[in-house]
Each structure stands twice: as C-alpha cells, then as structure tokens.
Amino acid sequence: MGKEFFILMKPELSIMLIIFFLLFLKIWDGIKEKSSLLSIVNLLLLLNFVIGFLFNKEGSLFSGMYHTNGIIAFEKNVLAFGTLLISLMAWDWLKKHEHMLEFYILLLSTLLGMNYMISSGNFMMLYLGLELSTIPLAALANFDLDKLKSSEAALKMILSSAFASCILLFGISMLYGTTGSLSFSEISMHMDGGMLQMLAFIFVFIGFAFKLSVVPFHFWTADVYEGSPIAVTSYLSVISKGAIVFVFVTTLLNLFSNMGTSWYHLLVISIVLTISIGNLFAMRQENIKRFLAFSSITQVGYILIGLSNGGSSGSAASIYFLIVYIFSNLAAFGIISMVSIQTEKENISDYNGFYKNNPISGWVMALAMFSLAGIPPTAGFFGKMFLVTAGASKGNYLLVAFASLNMVISLFYYLRVVKAIFINKNESPMETIKTSFPIKLALGVCMLGIVATGFYSGIYDYIVSILK
Amino acid sequence: MLHSKLIALVPLLPFATFLLLGLFGRKYLKNFSGILGTLSLLVAASISFYAAYEYFFVVGKNAAGVYEQIIAFKFTWLEFSPGVSIDLGVILDPISIMMLVVVTFISLMVHIYSMGYMKGEERYATYYSFLSLFTFSMLGLVMASNIFQIYIFWELVGVSSFLLIGFYYDKPSAVAAAKKAFIVTRFADLGFLIGILVLAFYSHTLDFQTLIERLTNHSEYYTTITAASFMGVSALTWGLVLVFIGGAGKSAMFPLHVWLPDAMEGPTPVSALIHAATMVVAGVYLVARLFPVFALSCPPALQVVTYVGLFSSLFAAIVACTQTDIKRVLAYSTMSQIGFMMFALGVSGYGGEEGLGYMASMFHLFTHAMFKALLFLGAGAVIHYVHSNEMKDMGGLRKSMPITHITFLIACLAIAGIPPFAGFFSKEEILAAAFHSNKLVFVVAIITAGITAFYMFRLYFNIFWSKEKVIDHAHDDHSHDSHGEGTKTMLIPLIILGLCAVGAGFIPFSHLVTSDGKVLETEFNPMFSIGPVLIAVSGILLAMFMYKKANSKPDTVSKALGGFYKAAYNKFYIDEIYLFKTKKIIFNLIGKPAAWFDKNIVDGCINLSATITENIAEALRPIQSGKVQQYAIWFFVGVLSFSVLFIYFWTN
Amino acid sequence: MAVTSLKVFRAAIYLLFSLIGIAGLYFWLNYEFIAAVQIVVYVGGIVVLIIFSIFLTHQSGEDMKAPTLIRSVFASIAAAAGFALTLLLINRHTFYTTSEKAVEPSVNNIGMQMLSTTEHGYLLPFEVISMLLLAAMIGAIVIAMKIKPKA
Amino acid sequence: MNLSLLILIPLLTAIVILTCKNIFAVRWVAFIGSVIQLGLSCALLYFYNAERASGNLGQMLFTERHSWYAALNIEYYIGVDGISIAMILLTSFVVAAGVLISWKMETLTKEFFFLLMLLSVGAYGFFISLDLFTMFFFLEVAVIPKFLLIGIWGSGKKEYSAMKLALMLMFGSALVLIGILGIYYNTNDGSGHHTFDILKISHQHIPLSLQMYFFPVLFAGFGVFTAMFPFHTWAPDGHSSAPTAASMFLAGISMKLGGYGCLRVATYLMPEGAHHYSWVIILLATIAIIYGAFATLMQKDLKYINAYSSVSHCGFVLLGIGMLTKVSIEGAVMQMVSHGLMTALFFAAIGMLYERTHTRQVAQLGGLLKVMPFIGVVFVIAGLCSLGLPGLSGFAAEMTVFMGAWENPEIWHRFATVLACASIVVTAVYILRAAGSSVMGPIKDEHFRLIKDAEWNEKLASVLLLVAILAIGMAPFWLINLVGPDSKIIMDQLSSIGGF
Amino acid sequence: MNEIGLPQILVVSTALFFIGVYGFLTRRNMITMLMSIELILNSVNINFISFNKYLFPGKLDGLFFTVIIITIAAAEAAVAIAIIISLYRKYKSIDVEDANSMKF
User: Fold this and answer.
1) Most A CBs within 10 Å, among C91, C113, C124, C134, to test the A interface
2) Taking Cα atoms as reference points, which of B97, B74, B236 lies closest to residue B146?
3) What is the pTM of this model?
C-alpha cells in the first residue's frame, strides 16, 4: 500500500474517481446545461489520458492479481485515448440524450473493467474485468432507448456474451481443476499437456475469441454493431476489441503458448476462417455499420496473424495496428455518426454523391477506408504490413499469401464505399452535414493519426522498446 | 581522296528540307517549297555527280585494279555489344556511287517535274517534304555501311512510300493502297529482319565489310553458320533467303508484288521516283550488296533469287498485257524488269567472266531507272492532260502532246531493247549472262523480252495512236485546263530523261561496276543480239497490228484466249488469294478468336473469380439469420469442432 | 425439466428446485457459506427476479412455442456429443492433488481473506465486483425505466 | 543532387494544389510543379553522367539512407542507376504532358491534379527506392489514385473498369508482398538482421528451393502491373475508361512500374529463379505479344486498340527480361521508356480526338487530318512509333530486344523471337487500319468540319513527348549508354550463378 | 458416502452444463434462455467448489470464484431482464425468434 499503490493503480483510480464524480453530479443535478456537462466530462477524460503518461512504474499488487508495466500502461493509455475520441465524437448524440451521465458512468466502468483485465494476474481478475467490460456495454447497446434495434442488439449481445462467458468459465474451471491455481504464472508451472487441459484451453480461447469476434464466434457482432448507438458501436469495435488484443499481448499469449504447436494451428484456422468469412460477408452489406462490423471481423483476423508470430515483433505489430485501427475506424464511425444524426441514413447507397456537398468529410471517409484497406500512404498500410511481416516470420508463406490475397477482396468493399462517395451519381446527393467543433476536432485528430502514424516511426519504435 | 563530309551532305540536304518543309512548310513556305526542294536536291545531285567523277576517275582503282570500298564516314548509333552495333555510315563503292547518282538524278527530275504537276495542290509543301524524306531515306539506304542501317532506311523508304501513296488521303482507295503497300513490304521486312538476326548472330557483326569478309572466307564464323542448320537447311541459307525475302518485298517480286500495282494510286511523279526507279530496286541493290556472300558461300540462295526473279518477270509481263490502266501496265512492267535484274544476279557468279550477270543487272538497273522514270513521267503528263488513267479514255494524243509522244516512244524502244537505246545494251548483257549459265532461264527471259515489247507498244499505240478521243475538259474544275501539254517544268525532265534513255547504254558499265570491282571485259556480239532484237521487233509489230487503229482485234484475241485472258486480267487472282488469306484467316480465324478469347475466357476467368466470390458471399448470407439462438448453435458447433479437431486430430 | 417445460412459470419453479439442490450439494461438501449465498442470491434473488419478469411480460400461463424439431434434435445431439466428449476427457484425466493443509472454509476465514490485501487476499476482486454491481444497476435502471413521453 | 526532391516536389505540388482557390491557380501550380520535375530529372541525368564521367563506379549514385523502422530494418534508402534514371525521365515527361493535356479539366480540377501528382510521387518513389519496403510502399501509392481518376473522371463503364483495375493491381501487389517477405526472411544484412536493402540482398544467396517459389510469385506480381498475359485484362478496360491523362499515366508510367520491378527485384535478386523460369516468361511474353497484337486487330475503339497494343508492346519488355542476355535487358529497359512515351503520346492524341469528336469508334471517324492537321499528324507519328519506325523510339527499343533475344541460341528462344518479330507486321496492320480510317479517308461526319485544331497546351504536351521520342529514336546511343552498364550488373548477377 | 467422490460430482456438473446448453439452444423464450444460463453457471460453480474441496483444499480460490460467479450472475440477470423488458415493450413478445430485425 502507500505511494506505490497509487502510482501503480493510477489509471484505474482516476477512472473510478471520474465515475464517482459523475455519480455525484448526477445526484446533485446542479448543472443543467448539457454542453457544459459534456465539456466537463471530456476534460476529465483528457485529464485521465494525460495522467496515464505520468509516473509509470512497473510492479504488481495484491499478491500478483494486479500487475503493471510500461506496455500495460501504454495500452491503457491507448484505450483511454480512444475513449476520449469516441466521447468527442458522440458529442452531438449525447447532447440530445437524457441519460448522458449514465452513459459515461457505464462507459467508464467498462473501461475500468478493461484496465483490470489488462492488468490481471490471474483468471479471477481477468474474468471479472471481462464481465465488467461486457455487462455495462450490453446496457449501453440499449441506449437508443426508443429504438427497437437497439434493444434487440442489447439482447443479442447479453445472451451471446453470457453464453460465451459460460464456455469461458467452464474452461477456467477445468484449468483450475487440472492445475490447481488461477494465477497465470502458477498455471504455467502445472502444465501437463493433457487432453482435458487442451479442452480447457480451447474453451478459454473461445471465450475470448467471442469477444474478438473470431469466426465462428462472431455472429453477434454484426447485429449488435448495427443496432447499437454509433458511439457504442465504435466503442465495441475499437476499444473493447483492442482491450482483448492487449490482454492477449500481455498475458494470454504466454498462457496459450503452453499449448505448443496446437496454439499456432488454432490461430491459423481462426485466421483463415475469420478473414475469409469477414470478407465474404462484408462484400454484400448495405448498412454501413454492419459493413464496418464485418470489416472489423476481418481486421481481427489480421491482428491474429500478428499474434501468431508469438514473439515481441508480433505483439508490437498488433499493438501498432490497433492504434492505427482506432484512428481509422473511429474516423469512419465519426463520419457515419455525423451523417446518421443529421439524416438518419445508414446505407452505403445513401452515400452516393456524398462528395458533392461534403468534400472534406468525403476525403476523411475515403482516407479511413484506405487506411482500413491498408493502402499507402495511410498508416493502415504500415499496420497491415507489419502484421503480415510478423506473420511471415514463421515461414508460413501460405498464410501470408492468404492474408495478402484477402486484402484484395477487402479492398473491393472498401472501395465500394469510396466509389459511393466519389463516383456514384445521385439525383439528390446528401446535403451538407453540419457538425459541432468537438467532432471536427476528433476527426482531425484521427486524420492526423492516419496520415502521420505511418510516416513517423517513433510510435512503433516506442512500442518495440517498451516490449523489450 | 573524296570529300567525305561533302558526301554526307547528300542525304542530309533532303533531310533538312524535309524538316524545314514538314515543320513550317504549310504556313510559311508554301509557295517556295517546290523551289526549295528542287534546289537542295540540285546541290545534292551535283555533289553526287562530282563524287562519282572523283571516285571513278580521280581516285580510281587501286594497285590491284580494283575499285576499293571506301568508308567515308561512320558513326556508332546503337551499340549492342562490342563489335555488334548499328553504325550510321557512308560506304562508297561502285554500286553505291551508281545508286547515288541514280537516286539524286531521278529525284531531281521528279522534283522539277512535280513543280508543274502538283501545282495548286493544297498540300504542296507537304508533298515536297515527303519527297525529300523519301530521297533522304533512299540515299541513306544506298550508302549504308551497315546491314542494320539498310534496314533502318529500308523502313523509312517504306513509310515515305506509304505517305506518298496515301498522299490523297481523303481517297479511300489511296489509303487502302498505301496500307497495302506498307503492310506487304512490312511482311517482307520481317524476313529481312530475321535474316539480319541470323547473319549477325553468326558473324558477330552488322558491318557489311566485316560481314562479307567473315562469311566468304572460310573462317570460324563461316564454319559455325554453315554447320548450324534448321530443318535441314544451313543457317546461312536461311539467313540469305530471309534477307532476300525482304528484298523481294520491296522489289515487288512474286508473290509479294501485290502492293505495287495498287501503289499507283499515288501521284504519278511519286510512282516514277519510288515505284519505278529507286525504291523498288532496293531489293536488287540489297542482293547486290551481299552478293559476295550469295555467290561465294551460298549458291542455293542464289538459285532462289534466280527463279523468283524469272517467274516474276514472266508473270508480270503476261499480266501487263491485259491491264487497261496505263500506270498499272507500267507497274507490271517495272516488276517484270526487276525480275530481269534479279535473275541476272541469280545466274551470276563472283568475279571475272562469271560476274557478267552482276554487271548486267546493275547496268539494267541503271538504264531501267532512266527509261522507266521517263515512262512514268510521260504517263503522268498524259494523265495530267486526260484526267484519267484508263486507256479507253485515251487515243491519238500524238498530235496534242508531241514532246511527250517522242520521249515516250524513246522509252518504249529502250525498254523493248531496240538498239541503240539504253535498254538494249543492258538487256543484252542479261540475256548473255543467262545464256552462259542456264538455258532455261535464257529461253524464258527471251520470251519475256518479246512480251515486254508487245505490251509496251500496246500501251504506246493505245495512248498516242488508236482512235482519237475527244478530251472533254468541260466538267473539269481544275484551273489549268489550258496548259496543253504541260508546263515547262514538266517537259524539261522528259527531255533530259529522254536523252538519258538514248545515251545511257553507251556508258562503259563493265569497266565501272562489277562484282569484284575489277574491270570486266565484255565483247559485244552482234550475232547473239539478233535473236532478241528480232523477237522484240516482232512484239512491236504485233502490237502495232493490233492497236494502231481502233479495231476489234484485241477483243477477238482476248476472247480466243478465254479463261487465260481473264485470269491474267485479274492478275491471276493473287489479290483475291491474299484478301482471302488476310480477311478470312488472319482476321476471322486468328484475330477474332483472339479478341473473343480475351474478352470471354481470360477476362471471363477474372470476372468469374469475382462472381464466384460474390456468389459464395451470397450463399453464405443466410447463416447470419438474425436469430440469436442460431448464432449460439453455430457457436457451440464451433466449440465442439475446435475441441475435437485439436484434441484428437491436430495434437502436438 | 427446467429446460424442457413449455410453461415458463413452471420452468422457473423447476429451476428453483435445481438451484436448491445444488445448494444442498454445497452443504454436503461442507461449504456452508457458499450454500448460503447460493440460496440467498439465487433462490432469493435471481429466481424471484425471473419470476417477476415473467409476470411482467404476462406470459406466465401461456405456453411457450415449442422449439422446432430439427433444432431440438440438433441441439440435443450437439449437447450430448459435448457431454460425451467432456466426460471422456474427465475420465481419462488423472487429477493431481496438493497435499496442503486444508483451509477451513468457515465464514470467518472467508471474510478475512476477502478483505485482505496480503497473500490470498481478495480485496481487489471484491472491489471490482462492487463496481460491476453498481454499473449493472445503473444500466438496468436506465434501460428498464419507462421512456418518458417526449415533450 | 538530392534525390528526395523527386518525391518532395510532386508532393509539395499536390499539397499546394489542395490549398488553391480557383481552377486557374490549380492549373498553373500543377504545371509549374511538373516543369520543375522535368527540370529536376534532366538535371539528374546531367549530374549522373557527370558523376560517371568523373569515375564514380558506385552501383547506385546519389544515395541517401535514413533508418525508418529500425526494428524491422526498414530504411528510407534511395539512389539511382542508369535504369532508374531512364524511368525517372520517362515519368517526368509523361507527367508534364499529362498535366498539359488535362488543362481543360473542368470538373473537380483540384482533386484531379492532386491525384495526378500523388501518382507521380508513387512512380518517382518506386524508381528511386533501394529498399524493398519503401519500394512496395510507393508501388501501392500509385494504385489508388488510378482508381479515383478512372472512377471519377472516366467514361464508359468506368466503375467496372476502375474497380477491376484497382483489384487486379492490388492482386499484383499482394503477390509482390509475398515475394518481398520471402526475400526478407531469407536474407540478412550481414549482421544477422533481416533486411529489405536491395543491394545487400543482391550479395546474398537466397536458397534455391525458395527462389523456385518466390520468383514466380514476385514476377507475376509485377507482371500484373506490366499487363502480362493472362493478367492483362485490367489494361484494356482501364485504359479505355480512363480520362486522357490517366490513360497516359497508366500506360506510360504505371505499367513500367511492373517492368522495372520484374527486372530490379525479381530477376536481379533471384537469378536462379529467373533462369529456371525464363521459359515461362518467354512463353507468356510471346503469347502476350502475338495475341495482344491479334486481339488489337479486332478492336473498334481507339483506346482499346492502344490498350491491347500496349499489352503487346509490354510483352517485349517481358521478352527482353526473359531472354536473360545483356542486350535483351537493355532492350527491355529501352522498350519501357519508349513505350511509355509513345503510348502516352498515342493516348494524348486519342484524347484530343475524342474531346473534339466525342467518339472513339474507328468506324465513325475519318478524314480528321484535314480538319485538325496537328492532332492528326501527332496521331500518325504515335502510330508510326508504335509500329517501330526507325527514327522514332520504338524501333531502337524493339531492335535491341530482338538482337538480345536472338543471342540466346536455343531453338525455343529463337522460335519465340521469330514470333515476336512477326508481331511487327500485325502491329503495322492494326496501326494502319486505325490511322487509315480515323485520321485519313474522307470526312465521315459533317460536324467534324467545325472542329478546331489543338490548343497551345495540347501542342506543347505533344511536342514534349515527341521531342523525347525523337531523342531516343534518332540518337538511341545515349540511352543505351545510360542503361548499358547497369544491365551488365544485372547480367553479371545472372551469369554469376553459372547458368550459361 | 465415500463412493460419491469427485468423478461423480463432475458427472453431475457436466450434465448440468450440457443440459443448460441444450436449454439455451432450444428454448424460445428469452427468460428461459436466461435460466439456462444460470444452470450453466451453476454447473461451473459445482466444478469450482468440488475441485477446491477435493483437490486443492489449501486455498480458497475456487470458493471465491464461485462467489464472484454468483454475484456476476445476479448482475447479468438484472441487466438481461432489464433488456428483455425493454424489448418486450417494443415487440410485445419475448420469443427470441421474433427478434430478428437485423440479419444477413
């Protein structure tokens, strides 16, 4: 306890403080003006993000249940930053929403859960973090209270995730039964490679694969993405996925490496299924949120390629890609939310001729798509390249071939959106979308990220350095 | 020593003219372009005459009594590998000097003539620039010191010929003829190119002198090239035959002659220059250039040359008898005469007495240039006057066009081989050469000579005698209908050429141009000449009998000959065969399937892969049914299959 | 029966009994605390919640729609296969045990450990779960609240 | 000479274009930018020759090296040799001409020129990169602008074409990626790290068994860009739908990216693979040449004609590479430059025709030489260049390829060479058909009589390209001297493994 | 008494687990699906407790995990029921098959 406690748990503590502060605000009900409330919240988030950079230390607490180090702190910062961006982008939506504070409380609880998850040293904390980051999210998915789709999305999410966590739990219980411990480090010591353990590992993997929406555990993704409010969708697609990836990078990879080569094969099968199914479904989507859902499934496949590397270069590539992915996907969602709030339009065909009245937004969207597709000079190119490069290190060039050929397919549907924006003719193109400053700010940051992250090698170098 | 820089000016002057007229002619130099072109060519012609004088009489023979080959100028243009490079150079030896003179002289005549003939043309300047381009290319060709240089200029004369044939580009027939000329010769050039590649590969050089030296001496190069064989024929033979195909294309040898008659769509002076005097003999020149290799190393190839030449001359002569378009008659006659030159080369050997055919061929080339140009220019004058190419529109023109008539007659006598006109001497030498080497060739040649006399005079009588036609100028909207016989610029060349056609035969060719550069002593044998002359005269008389007065005899004869006449009239259907070959086979059997294949199979495969992907995507869609329980089932199935897979099948 | 009954309410009651049965199991294993929690939270909380919600959705008496045959066959095959697989694996697995001295699962011990931060202390999970409950509560309230008619 | 300028100038131009307020400014900025590029590349040629003359024997000159992603050993490493300079010159000429020819672009002018400039950034970057990763980066930079250029400003079934082009090119670059990674993981920089450095890799020996896999992948990948049979089908559709400048870029520059990559990356780095697969390359190249030529015969649209003829002509590039002799490689490079210029000119001429007559169907055109002599003449010259007329660039290049190809004495190579030579006849046929019926012949449509001839910008563009074509055609020695030594280096690499 | 050892309990818990799975896969009522989830969770709880009891009595990991699971189950049930109610207000149905407005 003492000073070290505060320093090590700083991200969680600051989030908790914000939550309590918001609760207080809610109860006090002193500030009626929504935009000032929003400003306060966003400022707090910014503060939270900034604090994340200060006084980082390595260490563990609570007899190894909680541990942190440079890379974990960095990951938490990435999540905090993403949350801040999402919060900025949700400005217009939240301004109209009557449960704005509750939204933030739930959102921050999930963030808290993710932080615990990343920092967890045993399965108990991991599971708790997972649930903490899932259950409130299901509630959040229902936050478009008057929309049917939103409730449906929430239902699908809570049922599926409950089922998935049951599988996960069963796996954990078996692991516990066979190794006698919940702590990651001790589990590794008691491995015997038996079949039951293998089963347990597979169950645990599937529990997380579900959250990552790895095929065939992805079915909830599209429906939930489509139905949820856009802020929640974007949160789901970047932050909660990112958190799971981070968990993989920091803890689970070590754990699963106990499975030996099966782990690699398991990943390869998942990669192949995920990328191809994601691509095939994304090709035919009409709703742009659904489309992004499947595209994000594909992206997950690519991240798994990086993870399959198993070494630090793969982890670095995955983290790097995630940062890029946050920028790109959030830029896309930012535009979508702008459009959807003003016009209620969410179909790709609605974007026909979009460029005519919204040139800047058009370019932003196009850049986001290019980045997602991995086209230079956007950062997405570098992200994908590094992932594939990392994936090739094991000499599995068939996998690389598969991945790079699928990039072509994915280019097809990303270009569909670009085509709609720039090329397709429309009798009545979308009118000029007006938006508020915070959203513009957030989009600007995303653009900067998309363009600069690739050319500026510092971020990647930093990740590599803290991974070592 | 020769002034080599001066020689280099000869081709460069027309080139400069071409650039000047091509770039600025239309706007700024329209009226002066004729004069400009003529002047530049006048200078060039003077230089080449001077060069000829210097070469033959000032520099003269070397100690061995041989006219040496002089490389006056050489510049590496494109070096492939050491030793193998395309050089632009000027080679001076008897035949190149001779060609230099012929080309500049005829070209000068045509330039002068065109000032009258083409007057008032909208694209007068363009015409002259093309003409200059052609002259430049032709000069480059004849002076080439490198086999690839010849090829370069070979192509350039091809394209200038294309441009000039298609000069009246808004006339579809002209465009078609131009295309045909280019494509047919291009096809032949393909042979030439591959021939070059073969020869160059084995001799490791592109330079003529080195090439000839390496392939005639029994060097290692010679051994490899004769040792290498393809389909039982040695690489050398292949190379030479392929080169000859190139020459045959340009020289309109059977069966690559089809472009020549059509090429008459071009302005008549152009026909005179390109398709009578200069370009078409390029093939002969090419064989002559490589003659040592042909003669010393590869008699079989020379055999091919002989028989192709022989057949072409006979074939063309027969066809010429039936044509009614005067320019076409002349075109076939050109083909026939070039056939003479070719087989003359073919029957020749290298050096000494054996080399008679070579000398004769060159001699005939020279004289033929004169009288054939004269014939064309004369025909041009007639056409200019009558505004038609058809014999049936002509007749009795001897009164209205006296000078043309006289010069035309001279030319006809020359080509028929009546002494003392130029054609007599050269043709005599050819026949003598044929007689000495191959009797079959001789017989066919002499028959052809008779036919030649017949059809030339058929032409002559039809134009200038026969019944008088009323030349109707009323519907003529040209402004120069009062020109009578033509302007002075048109008549002067006729007269000059007429004089040449008379006098050229007296040039002692055997002293100047021989296969090995040494003097070849030829004795003139009057006894030998009697036969051919008689045959020629009888041909003339026959023509006179049939065509001097308008009558029905020709019809009777043609009816009597029936199918043969018809076939000859239709040029033995060679054109149709080609048309069939190109239209049906190339376009329909290769082109169309290729395009179809591309569009449907290759592209189809690529589109198919896209379609398949889309269809799979479509087929998979129902999996995402929107029902959460179904999702759970998939989920659970996934769990089970992963478990089973990794626990039982894919274990460590 | 909790999963086969077509009447929702009855299914809930069956569930109640099975939960109580499990609590009995815990008693039998000497884990009284867990048994108590089981009864309090599950029987007292969740089942009641479920029953309330059943009433709220006015479906207590009505029959549920029977699952389609194919699906139930399929699901039972899948579940049976999974069951067989797992059992097989469990049977083939020899569990190892630790010979540590057993910690008495008394309420006292549990309480001590739950709130301690030292070795074997579970303060952090305890705290986190409190956050979770808070969040869940807020979420549930927001969602389930009647939507106010908009002005 | 700072090579980075070649990337920076177009980039800067592109950025300035984005900030421009009106069309006028946009045009002039683009024009000035392209002229600077032109000047730069000419200066580069001059300095390069000066440097070589002063005895600098380095394989690459003006190199610049910055560590980029140190962890993966990715570097920003640029430098030029003769071959790259030839390509850079080509690019700058085509870019300048492309800008001029699009002077009248009215819709979305800013975006148009921006994309053009972006494309040229990609091309320059590709040609000067000595690091495989950077090279790949620039290769892909050059893809997407094409999609937008065709999609937005194109004509006909532009959406289909644009999509097809983008997907097929990306397919190619996916193959390239696999190949590059294969190379990366099987070589090191001498200190145990994997490397992307081309020069270092060239001193390494990639295991034979791997070359057998990666060479075809890499070659096919770049081959897609060069419109290698059977991956050429993006070319006809793409070209025909693209706006004029985009067609020029596409055929003039980006098809050359592939050829350059085949040579510099595939062949140079994996010589055994090249030897082993040379017969496949030759086969495909010959098919492309012959079959492209015959397919051209049947086309009715001028742009399709040129597109298919490009397939055929690019076959010469591949043939030159596949023959694996020094001369043939020189020929391949020359053919790339020559074809780039020529086809750009051809597309420019077609574009000018189309802009005025609103049709590209050969059957509907006719007699245009009369109403627009300048354009007509340009068209004819481009056609003549295409059919390999001496004095124009096509001849020198093709002949070099033939000479080089013939040096390979096997009967099979000979046969391929003969077939390739035969294509010049077919080329003549289709070029003359196109020229004969579109610019020659009688005027088919009375509206044509009202047409005006080329404007100054179009004239300037054509003249620019013509000058370059003539410079190569009349005096090919400078080009062959430029690329010769470097072809020899590649050849040495090839023969070092004892294939001959 | 002694014959009821770990294996027998594990059989029970596994059975319970798959019964729950079966229920989850077949019940069309959202609330019963939720109930199935509870069954599964309980089976996991039995696992934890029995492992703790029979194999690893030295620590109370299993026990605490069980406590946590029970708590989470409660939270989850609360949220799920809230969502179901909210959905019910709009659909007037709690048949899970009806909730398929989003698909493909």
Assistant:
1) C124
2) B74
3) 0.89
